[in-house]
Hints:
8-stranded mixed beta sheet; 29 strands
Amino acid sequence: MAGTLRFVSAGAGSGKTYRLTQILHEKLSSGQATPGGVIAMTFTRKAATELRERVRTALLEKGEFALANSMGQARIGTVNSVYGGFLERFAFEAGLAPEQRVLEEAQAGALVREAIDVVSDSAMVQNLVELARRLGIERWEGELKSLMDQARSNDIAPARCATFGERNAKDLLAHFPAPTADDLDALLVHTIETAVPALEQRATGKKNTAEYIALARDTRRVVRGGTAVWADWVKLSKGAPEAGLKTLAQPVMDIASRFVAHPRLRQDIEQYLAAIFTLAAKALNAYARRKRELGVIDFVDQEHLFLGLLDKPAVVETLSEELELLLVDEFQDTSPIQLELFVRLSRIARETVWVGDVKQAIYGFRGSDAELMKAVLEKLPSLGGSKEVLGQSRRSRPHLVRLVNGAFGDAFAPGLSRAEVELTPVRKELVPDPAFANWVLNGKNIQERAAALAEGIKALIASGYRVVDPVAGSPRPAHYGDIAVLSKTNTGVQTVAAALRSCSVPWATQQSGLLSTPEAVLALACLRRLNDPWDTLASAEILSLADCEEPESWLADRLRYLERGGDSGLWRDEAKDGHPVLSRIAELRAQAPLLSPYAAMELVMVQCDLAGLVLRWRRDGLVARVRLANLEAVLRLARSYEDACLARREPATVSGLILWLEEQAQEKLDMLAEPPVAAVKVMTHHAAKGLEWPIVVLLDLEKDIQDRLWSVGARSDASLDVAAPLKNRWIRYWPWPFGAQKKVDMADVIAQSPEGVHVRAEAIDEAKRLLYVSMTRARDCLVFGFPAKKGTCEWLGSLNAPWLAPDGASQSIVLPDRSKVPCDFQSLDAPVAMPATAEPDSALRWFPAPASRTARLPATLVASASVAQPCRITDMASLGDRIALKKGTDMTALGNAIHACMATAFTDSDVPLDEARTARILDGFGLEGAIDPSELVRQIVALDRWISLRWPDCRRHAEIPVESILPSGQFMHGRIDLLLEMADGWVLLDHKANPAPRDRWEQIAMEHGGQLSLYADALVRATGRPVTETWIVLPVAAGAIQITMGAP
């Protein structure tokens, strides 16, 4: 090992960031490290920025200005940003382009799903679906994704991954009895056919007997038909008729209970595991191919590629010469491949400091492996490393520090001693209010208990409970923004948020469900209507939401409209007697083809005044702010879609955005907005890691501990090789084969096996760590919320600290050292009836309605829809002969078709536009027979000849998109039909399908002068070169006119 290694054990609130800053400052000030020789890796951009600025500030305060100015040379950033920088630097050695395009997590997830679809041929998927159905596995796609994630985070090659199915099946089935040679299907059918008539004959009308007979008949039917699932066997084995008839049913129960020895059960498990691991390997290869095609990498690729670089002597030598100090923050949250990298880098750096807390390793469900990390730390002495323990709590008041010490002092033994767990408080007790509270939440269901919690929070704020302001350091009354409520599940978070909302308590939560909110549904309906005039379901949604019109009303109106012969797609679109939103969307539709998806979404939001519409649904100011924030979040999603398309080198379209948003909702990636208000934060226990609040309420402490015996996880084959933590890693996956039937004797047998015991112990340890994280989030007050019937409290009970939840009311709790901590006991009830908040007739005072409104400019302006401007015709040219038009030709479609033909002709001069190709384009726009394709080809040839004669040295650019910010602040979007690049500037040509005769060309010039003026201005500002000529080309009218802006 090249240098020294130190692990800094930093308990919750012990000043980890301060210590990191101190170490870095000391090394720089003493000259033991230079900024260019420092690497400091964190897991968030915010943490990296904070560390850099704290060190810079400390250096400036000491007058070390040169070092402070050199901090930009230090590589301080997230793990992936640092590795990405090295990959760019050593791109040649890594076989990469100097610049890599890195996928964000959401973009990578979309590519993974695409890769799975590519390799999932119908026969393979059909077989896997059928196996999963029989085994009762509802979400095999999620298990497949987990297998892929584990393979990548443990650097397991796809070919090796494919072999794990056989190993897992062998390990799992070793706990099952030997397969029987009996035909259990035939035996079960026979015994049912024998038992059921006897049961029916002697039945006394009791419900349980009738239900058992029905169950037996159903099971017989599905077994004979070959459609039975294994849960059917389990259910029948546990069922029974009334006591007096059990002897008749016993043969059925005996045969059904032999399901664990059924040969086909073993076969299903073997085939399922082989199929899903094989599919995972194929999907991994397909994902890698797709990324190569797009020229992109993801975060795990960065880690894998950098790991490969560390096998190259030249790279290691270079890093050894440069790397003076390596700092790693949140070491306990590293994935297995990151751990391997940190170990390898520690042998290169002169000094390495890992900072973390074993007690806060809670991300096993994301792929981190706490056992692997602990094994590395246990072998720290063999690495020549040392340990430093931060022993002070700077976050919480003394009462809370003593409470946490008492609860967790021995909880992590023998791995951690009390000295490594307990902290000494730095803060003083400044307020008499109790630091701990036990709230009993009364109610028949979770909704009522959540309402009781809301009442407790309201009462706490109304009581004037005091907290210590972290900035001022003095007491002040608490407000809603000081409180966080932590639940174990996302469903619990949603229930609490709904209860707080009903009780008029400000709330904020990071949860999915944005696209199911009324305001998002309205915005998306407007976008769909803009995109598709035949989307009448969108029209119905707009009517129902914009004005809260009852379905009976608009449905009757639509039926009357259709009876009168009205066009289905134009219902309520007309400016006269139409709906204002639908009419406005109809007016905007002509602009849609020229808009980006984001611009289209923004356009309908602004032009249809969706903000004003959703404010009519307000119940109070908070709800109104949430709705407005959600609209902004929908816009941000549209921008994310465009970024994803850019990363994948695919065109972004409005239709694509609509489909992508549906996918986001299905994957629960549509996060609700958090308005900037002082609100109660509601989140899961896991999401609270790294955060703190004055008051924290913990829920679900009575829940059971769920282990991962029947889920995907990674293991090491042998004891840890500290030099290579990833050596001999493999993926363990045992699928639960009995669906919703959980009470099976075989489950207990497997749970008592060495593997079951080990997995259970891991789950209990992680549950303790999660509880430690949650209980250390509070600065001033920690509240436990229990249902009245809390049962055994398995989660909280894992601490073996019953004094935390006394059965009766108590003024204090007694700690293991016999000292006391004041405790507030409350028994809370939901309100008898939720009070209805009166809707104010007047506008909200923070959003006053003006007496009159000034016409508002649209945020987005499509150039072709700009207002006419004065201009004059300075030249005219004849181009070929007029094109004959069929009467009734759709001129909008004709204009689009001519643009498409022109773009095709001028995009690639080596591929001439012939008559057949032109006919196909015209047919695609529904213009078959409207014009003669040969006449259009003739006109395009004439235009080409005219350009060649007039501007012989020009370079042609067809269909150039243009965007510009106007002096008014508006965003202008458009597309230049044909741009000629000259030595002295640009010549701008715009095609119009207008067939007007020559005497009306001046009117055409006036109508389109504004559009061409916008294009010319944008070109000058973007390129710095002048537009020397501007022309309107009229292929149907056989001419071209040159215009100059200004009055004639």
